[in-house]
Design goal:
The complex is a heterodimer of chains A (404) and B (321). Chain A is built from 19 helices and eight strands. With 404 residues, chain A is an alpha/beta fold. In chain A, strand 6, helix 15 and strand 7 form a beta-alpha-beta unit. The longest helix of chain A is centred in the C-terminal third of the chain and has 27 residues. In chain B, 49% of the residues are buried. Chain B is built from twelve helices and ten strands. The chains are: A alpha/beta (404), B alpha/beta (321).
């Protein structure tokens, strides 16, 4: 279970590929922290509208907002701490970063209007990720929160996320950027050529090939930014430290599907080599293995032919009607899928340290989109801390024992 | 009246470039592969272009992972991984004929900074590469009958489709602007291009698809094809109609009923969101069933297409063009 992991860390970063339930998991963890008495904040990216609504952050920008205590009380549990939530607005975050570091109003305005800045702040690979981490830094530096849960952007390769600070720093590296800073650049390549043959030549070729007459603008961007490079480099170091601090834990959220797990495996390996090992794993939307005790089915585990066994059991129990065949085939389909998932999850776990806790969250047949249903996930993530609905399923208990 | 496979492919007939777009994790690569395979099996010469290397695609088609460039996956079906930067250097090769000069430009750090910062240059070059393949003629006939594009996740793809317009604005008259205009013509041509969104019938993907539809239809005005709704659960009865386990029933019976309730629950959720999609995204819609498959490979991809053809039905008041 993840209870100790969350209790022992100030920063919990939820990672994983797109569409696996990262946002929901991040919100659930923060909510649990709040119910446990912590001042929790969840930084979320692009939440489902209903989830945002249920947290009361529908119209919010990028400042943390407290979730209403009345809303928190709808979880049916005593509220001992507090929960704040914020959404990342990438463009806005960049603009504020520039505003914070720009040496003068004039420079700030020049940067904000520059087309290359507009492109960089929205499109540069890693720019979104960088801002998420930048926000994380700000939250860490403030004393307002003692549990910070970060929902990472839905990058296909979630690794971009952690490489983003370095990438931005390299991009803004002085040695390279100074080429763009040469004052003659704004006068065009001819002047550049006079100063430095190679650079001038390169610029001329680029201009010819692309028709970009905007080199002056590139130059202007970099010269306006030049006063800020040290700030970026310092920031990268702070970020590096936060991500590797003993108070930071990474929780991988993944589905049990083959494809998703392959990606997760690759990801987990890379995290380890970057000295940011996983602290916990959430298998989300898992199909539960039911009636899997040896003896229920002739072969020990369910097989296609066992539809017969199921139909017989239904008949014995007096369940009849036009849908019996579907009941049986649905069960067998479901259990075969569950078996495959269980095997894949075991294989995945074999590659992790035995100390890494893992939990499975079943494939709820309702959307998880309000505080009450977030609370419903708590039993699966943190053990029997939720008041009702808390009894773990038999298969979950069995897996729990196997782990301990 | 049920539509047969030929009808769905017919709905996209004549469209030479099909962009498959959608939120991460909804099955874009699966649908793109399924379409490409279906076209290839109709004896069309098909190019399946992916904008970022996808493990999924490589697994379906048994390709070596991480390889850029063109790979023949099946008879009639080639896979191409397009990335903006290599497309741009390829393009520079055309306009800077002296190889030594070209190498010098491309290998300079300055160039990489320029490419990273220039608004949309990489995106333009990516879509430009697809345009280039579209109009390629080999021995008097077009090289490709159909190009299926496995596009990146939503936010990204909008950027790609928006790009040529932005580039035409941002760049002065010159080669880039000319390229951008050619690409814009392709993207706007309903006779050649179709954008096909993929979604699942759940809260987040449906919201995102509705927003994307607005963008695609009203702002970008790109020609739309078919909406694919993936992983649709069906059940012959509602979750409340699944009987409770009779007193004294075995645990097996209770579990069977529980599975039925869950499946019926998902079917009900999917139905609700399909209704919402019908209102928010008025496009011809194809439902692809949730497959209880332990492993997902080419066989399952084919099964999806076959099943799509069987249960294909247009939404109310909609017909395939």
């Amino acid at each position: 279970m993840l209870a100790d992991l969350v209790r022992d860390h100030r920063v919990v970063v939820c990672v994983g590929s797109g569409g696996v339930g990262k946002t929901t998991t991040a919100a659930t963890i923060a909510l649990w922290g709040a119910l446990e008495g912590r001042r929790a904040v969840v930084l979320t990216i692009d939440p489902a509208r209903r989830l945002a609504n249920s947290l009361g952050i529908a119209e919010l920008g990028d400042e943390p907002r407290q979730v209403d205590a009345v809303l928190l009380a709808t979880t049916g549990r005593p509220v001992r701490g507090s929960l704040a939530a914020m959404m990342l607005d990438q463009k806005n975050a960049w603009d504020r970063l520039v505003a914070r570091h720009a040496p003068s109003d004039d420079v700030r305005e020049r940067i904000l209007r520059n087309r290359f800045y507009l492109n960089l702040s929205q499109n540069f690979a890693g720019s979104h990720e960088y801002m998420a981490i930048e926000q994380l830094c700000l939250l860490c530096e403030s004393d307002a929160y003692d549990l910070i849960v970060l929902d990472t952007p839905p990058t296909k390769r979630a690794l971009d996320f952690f490489e983003a600070p370095e990438r931005i720093r390299d991009f803004l590296d002085r040695k390279i950027v100074r080429w763009f800073l040469m004052p003659y650049l704004s006068q065009g390549w001819a002047a550049a050529k006079a100063m430095n043959r190679t650079v001038g030549f390169l610029f001329r070729k680029l201009e010819e090939a692309t028709g970009v007459s905007a080199l002056a603008e590139v130059s202007d961007f970099f010269s306006a930014m030049s006063g800020m490079f040290d700030a970026f480099t310092d920031r990268t170091d702070v970020i590096h430290d936060i991500l590797r601090a003993s108070t930071t834990a990474f929780v991988l959220v993944t589905g049990p599907e083959e494809q998703v797990l392959t990606e997760a495996e690759f990801f987990s390996g890379r995290m380890r080599s970057m000295r940011m090992p996983l602290g916990g794993v959430v298998f989300n939307r898992v199909h539960e293995e039911l009636s899997a005790d040896a003896g229920t089915f002739p072969g020990g585990t369910v097989a296609r032919l066992d539809e017969e066994v199921v139909r017989a059991a239904l008949a014995d129990a007096g369940v009849a009607g036009p849908h019996v065949a579907w009941l049986a085939s649905n069960f067998v389909d479901y259990q075969l899928l569950a078996r495959g998932e269980a095997i894949r999850m075991e294989q995945f776990r074999a590659g992790l340290s035995r100390r890494v806790p893992f939990v499975t969250v079943p494939n709820f047949d309702t959307d998880v989109h309000d505080l009450a249903s977030l609370t419903r996930m708590h039993a699966h993530l943190f053990g029997a801390t939720a008041p009702s609905d808390g009894a773990p399923s038999r298969s979950a208990r069995r897996r729990g024992r196997a782990r301990d | 009246m049920p539509y047969r496979r030929a009808d769905m492919l017919g709905a996209l007939a004549g469209r030479r470039v099909i962009f498959v777009v959608g939120k991460g994790g909804v099955g874009k690569s699966t649908v793109a592969t399924a379409l490409a395979v279906a076209f290839a099996e109709q004896d069309k010469r098909v190019l399946l272009a992916q904008m970022e290397s996808s493990r999924r695609l490589a697994e379906f088609l048994d390709l070596p992972t991480g390889d850029a460039g063109m790979v023949e996956a099946l008879p009639n079906l080639c896979v191409l991984t397009v990335d903006g930067e290599s497309a741009l250097s390829e393009y520079l090769g055309l306009v800077l004929p002296v190889r030594r000069v070209q190498r010098m430009v491309v290998e300079s750090k300055l160039y990489h900074h320029f490419v990273a910062a220039a608004p949309g240059l990489k995106e333009l070059m990516t879509v430009g590469k697809i345009w280039y393949e579209e109009q390629l003629v080999v021995q008097g006939r077009r090289k490709w009958d159909v190009i299926v594009v496995d596009a990146p996740a939503t936010g990204h793809v909008l950027q790609y489709l928006r790009m040529p317009g932005a580039a035409a604005e941002a760049f002065g008259p010159g080669l880039v602007r000319r390229e951008a205009q050619k690409v814009m013509e392709l993207l706007a041509d309903p006779g050649r291009t179709a954008v096909c969104p993929v979604t699942t019938a759940e809260e987040m993907p449906v919201n995102e698809t509705a927003e994307m539809y607005q963008q695609l239809h009203e702002r970008l005005r790109v020609p739309l094809g078919v909406l694919f709704v993936n992983r649709v659960h069906t059940a012959p009865l509602g979750p409340a109609d699944v009987p409770a386990a009779p007193a004294g029933a075995s645990p097996l019976v209770a579990d069977v009923l529980r599975c039925a309730r869950e499946e019926a629950g998902w079917a009900a959720i999917n139905r609700r969101y399909l209704d919402r999609l019908r209102a928010a995204v008025p496009m011809p819609t194809v439902r692809l069933p949730f497959l209880f498959a332990e492993e997902f490979g080419l066989a399952e991809v084919r099964a999806l297409m076959a099943s799509a053809s069987r249960q294909l039905a247009p939404g109310p008041g909609q017909e395939f063009a």
